[in-house]
Inverse folding.
């Protein structure tokens, strides 16, 4: 091999890290540091530097081809059978046009949460479609932009019912036919906030005694067993007492059955998974929550609404953002701070592509196939337990259940074993007459043929009750009938993607959010059938590859954080927070410390910290920060002393929310431990520590991590995310467990079943599926496998260098608000724009919107300090892109200076009118004191890569005053 060829053999880390060695030297010179090592040693306190690992559990890095080959081997250890287990998870057919143009398209999966609506109109329209789809099918007035999964959506429905109910009691009624994983979630979450659950038979309904003091009810429709019961009588009785009715409804079934709204429900919850989103061993999937009129301002999570821009053009935006946790903190009613946007987009486009007629056809075929199987089962001597069904049958035959389960597995099918006499099976859109024939043989009908099965399906009547058939219309908006051909659908998806700004266009310098490269090789395995088509409750023997990969990640993540154990179950960062706090709660209660309920939280913390603490049954006490943004040690010691008998935990983010490495972090942790509390270290900023310091070494007891930040899972326009929780051994028994998990947990030292040393997790679940969102875990596995510990360490160094380079180049134009003792920042810096407003009237909003004209997504606005921009370049951006951003910010400062000098009026300049659309630049007479060229081409060379925002600045207040959260009529676009 020649030297030239050797130079071309770059590692994956070289591809992932945007700056070269030569670039980094230029940047180091600007920062005033001689080397990367000197930089991180100056920035990170010496007291927390981790000693190099003598032997890492993370294997040496391999190339992209080798990593995928290893992952293929793991995938090959999974067995993909036709899953007919049901229980809220169903096989589905993802239209190829949606898979290729949404799921596998970086224009969709690398976008950020649409806080900047002017550059998010595409995904906001897709989410409006999702909200309309859910509202129509459930018969509700308003739906949110998605929830994390069905189980957590039911929990949120319960909490909403408690807020909205006129009943002051603490009891919640629970349908005995609720999905078992949902019931387990309710048990765990209700206990923490003092809610008593009362189960009842859905046929008989709750007793008068059970209704006493009940603020609400949840009903499964159809039930987990497949039974269809009219819920309206129970709803009426709950309403009579002032309670709120929540119905967990199957969206596909709602195309044939009367909707929850038709039956009087107040809240509808569920999942959209069967609308084209693969099983994925349990996730990620888009849950949903919808409410009747009058409850829309109680909705948790994201809500997309309609407003108008500066030209009076209709535009979409996130509504009611004052509900966000970083504003309401401990008064927040939910800790959900994200959504499952990418999956909600897929589900909405499934409905757009199929339309109401297509969905009804699919549902009708499912119902008839189920009825055909009921006939087969009866012929085989089984009792069909319920009178009515949609897609699920419960079959009973004395002593035959296990043999049927085994025979089905041998034939390639997974059924659900209820007990020794009872089997359950669920039909989905992938079930064919071939499957009906095969299952007939499994049941013992020897003469079953495919033609006979085809005829049985064709001639079968549905098992739906005649008095519950749907009569109301749904999906009548033109968007659900305009895109039937693949050509139209492809162009619609392209049209929406072109409206948006994602990482495939340029840097998204969001502080605290780490919008780093999501490499194509990391994404490759997500759609492999061995990962995509696996049911979350498949038997262990079918998922050894998944468990192997999950075990690797648990081990690797434990090592880099300094903890003893990791649970991958939390399916969002907020849920990881909650899981960690619930583990602390469980630990204290196990020791008899029932009064330890106080959670100390610094004033600078992200708002989800406080919201999670409240939902974990804790009382928040705020700890002050000093003028440098660090935890005020004197105030901390005073608070720990004042609450010495009741202190449960401290939550602290490291590096701090202000973007600096606190030098007193060991003292902070020691003070809390001395008072009997536990230390929760928020792992949101782990990207600034990997390879150099570990939470568990400097005092952390438990942390959540953000795989969608530090470990490269894409943000997807606002989700999915994964928020694993890592802990010391004493908290392991209280981390999330799951009754249907395939992993057999053992204590250290045991080698039985090959689980050698995995600490048992026996706490209650925090997500519906045992491993949360496992189908996207191959992304993180591949990233770590290709980076190795050395590459992860290099990534940290490059990220810290990038932030300090931007800070050093911009500090004269925009003061850097916080730095550490060395004058350095961590992986992000806060630019203070408040002086600019005082001298020019230009606001942080003006700068953020003007950056769009320069071809950038704005940094994080007004967090953690109002009137500031928090900038995080990440290690993925190259020097040219960093300089392009710096040049844009300096040019914007020069524009503001022109306002200061009076060259442009304070109310008529390119900043206050930003962003500028193409239409605004070419239409009509130009009356502004700046030129058209200054408006849309503010720097040389931008025309070659110009991003044109589709709308001008949006009126946020109007949208909140006039709440419209479904597809507007076509006339609104005129």
């Amino acid at each position: 091999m020649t030297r030239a060829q050797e130079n071309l053999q770059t590692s994956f880390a070289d591809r992932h890290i945007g700056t070269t060695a030569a670039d980094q030297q230029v940047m180091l010179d600007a920062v005033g540091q001689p080397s990367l090592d000197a930089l991180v040693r100056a920035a990170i306190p010496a007291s927390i530097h981790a000693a190099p690992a003598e032997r890492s559990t993370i294997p040496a890095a391999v190339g992209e081809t080798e990593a995928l080959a290893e992952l293929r081997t793991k995938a090959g250890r999974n067995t993909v059978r036709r899953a007919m287990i049901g229980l809220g998870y169903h096989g589905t057919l993802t239209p190829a046009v949606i898979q290729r143009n949404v799921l596998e398209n970086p224009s969709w999966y690398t976008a950020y949460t649409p806080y900047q609506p002017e550059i998010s109109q595409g995904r906001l329209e897709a989410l409006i479609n999702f909200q309309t789809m859910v509202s129509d099918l459930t018969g509700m007035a308003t739906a949110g932009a998605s929830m994390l999964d069905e189980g957590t959506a039911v929990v949120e429905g319960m909490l909403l019912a408690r807020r909205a109910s006129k009943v002051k009691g603490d009891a919640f009624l629970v349908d005995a036919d609720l999905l078992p994983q949902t019931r387990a979630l309710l048990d765990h979450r209700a206990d923490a906030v003092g809610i008593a659950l009362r189960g009842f038979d859905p046929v008989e309904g709750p007793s008068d005694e059970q209704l006493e003091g009940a603020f609400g009810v949840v009903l499964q429709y159809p039930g987990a067993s497949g039974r269809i019961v009219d819920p309206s009588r129970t709803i009426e009785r709950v309403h009579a007492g002032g309670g709120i009715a929540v119905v967990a409804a199957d969206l596909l079934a709602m195309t044939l059955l009367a909707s929850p709204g038709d039956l009087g429900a107040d809240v509808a919850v569920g999942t959209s998974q069967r609308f084209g989103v693969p099983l994925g061993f349990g996730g990620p999937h888009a849950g949903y929550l919808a409410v009747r009129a009058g409850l829309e301002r109680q909705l948790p999570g994201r809500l997309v609404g309609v407003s108008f821009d500066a030209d009076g053009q209709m535009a979409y935006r996130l509504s009611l953002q004052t509900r966000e946790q970083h504003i309401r903190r401990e008064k927040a009613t939910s800790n959900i701070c994200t959504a499952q946007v990418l999956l909600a987009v897929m589900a909405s486009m499934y409905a757009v592509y199929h339309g109401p007629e297509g969905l009804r056809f699919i549902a009708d075929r499912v119902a008839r196939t189920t009825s055909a199987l009921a006939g087969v089962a009866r012929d085989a001597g089984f009792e069909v337990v319920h009178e009515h069904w949609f897609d699920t049958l419960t079959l009973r035959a004395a002593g035959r259940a296990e043999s049927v389960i085994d025979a089905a597995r041998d034939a390639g099918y997974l059924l659900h074993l209820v007990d020794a006499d009872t089997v359950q099976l669920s039909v989905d859109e992938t079930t064919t007459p071939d499957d009906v024939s095969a299952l007939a043989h499994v049941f013992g009908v020897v003469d079953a043929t495919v033609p006979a099965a085809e005829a049985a399906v064709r001639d079968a009547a549905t098992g739906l009750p005649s008095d519950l058939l749907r009569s109301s219309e749904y999906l009548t908006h033109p968007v659900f009938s305009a895109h039937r051909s693949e050509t139209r659908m492809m162009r619609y998806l392209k049209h929406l993607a072109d409206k948006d700004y994602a990482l495939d266009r340029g840097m998204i310098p969001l502080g605290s959010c780490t919008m780093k490269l999501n490499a194509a090789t990391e994404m490759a395995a997500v759609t492999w059938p061995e990962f995509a088509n696996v049911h979350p409750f498949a038997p262990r023997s079918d998922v050894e590859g998944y468990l192997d990969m999950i075990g690797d990640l648990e081990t690797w993540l434990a090592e880099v954080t300094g903890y003893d154990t990791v649970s991958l179950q939390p399916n969002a960062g907020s849920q990881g927070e909650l899981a960690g706090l619930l583990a602390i709660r469980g630990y204290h209660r196990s020791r008899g410390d029932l009064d330890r309920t106080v959670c100390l939280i610094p004033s600078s913390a992200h708002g989800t910290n406080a919201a999670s603490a409240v939902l974990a049954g804790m009382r928040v006490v705020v700890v002050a920060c000093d003028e440098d943004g660090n935890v005020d040690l004197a105030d901390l010691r005073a608070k720990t002393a004042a609450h010495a008998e009741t202190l449960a935990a401290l939550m602290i983010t490291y590096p701090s929310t202000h973007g600096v490495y606190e030098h007193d972090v060991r003292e902070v942790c020691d003070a809390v431990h001395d008072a009997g509390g536990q230390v929760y270290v928020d792992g949101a900023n782990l990207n600034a520590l990997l390879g150099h310091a570990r939470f568990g070494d400097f005092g952390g007891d438990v942390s959540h991590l953000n795989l969608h930040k530090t470990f490269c899972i894409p943000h997807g326009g606002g989700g999915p995310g994964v928020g694993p929780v890592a802990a010391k051994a004493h908290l392991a028994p209280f981390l999330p467990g799951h009754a249907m998990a395939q992993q057999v947990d053992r204590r250290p030292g045991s080698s039985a079943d090959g689980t050698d040393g995995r600490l048992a997790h026996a706490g209650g679940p925090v997500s519906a599926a045992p491993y949360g969102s496992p189908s996207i875990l191959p992304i993180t596995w591949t990233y770590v496998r290709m980076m190795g510990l050395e590459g992860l360490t290099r990534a940290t160094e490059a990220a810290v260098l990038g932030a300090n380079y931007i800070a050093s180049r911009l500090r004269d134009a925009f003061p850097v608000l916080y730095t550490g003792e060395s004058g350095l920042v961590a992986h992000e810096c806060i630019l203070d724009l408040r002086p600019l407003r005082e001298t020019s009237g230009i606001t942080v909003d003006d700068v953020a919107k003007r950056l769009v004209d320069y071809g950038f997504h704005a940094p994080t606005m007004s967090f953690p300090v109002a009137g500031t921009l928090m900038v995080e370049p990440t290690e993925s951006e190259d020097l040219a892109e960093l300089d392009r951003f710096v040049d844009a910010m300096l040019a914007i400062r020069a524009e503001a200076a022109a306002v200061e000098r009076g060259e442009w009026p304070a109310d008529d300049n390119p900043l206050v009118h930003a962003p500028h659309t193409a239409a605004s630049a070419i239409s009509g007479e130009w009356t502004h004191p700046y030129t058209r060229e200054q408006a849309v081409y503010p720097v040389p060379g931008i025309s070659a890569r110009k991003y044109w925002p589709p709308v001008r600045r949006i009126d946020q207040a109007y949208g909140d005053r006039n709440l419209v959260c479904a597809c507007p009529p076509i006339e609104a676009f005129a």
Remarks:
- The chain has three domains: 94-391+427-505, 529-782, 786-960.
- The chain has 32 helices and 25 strands.
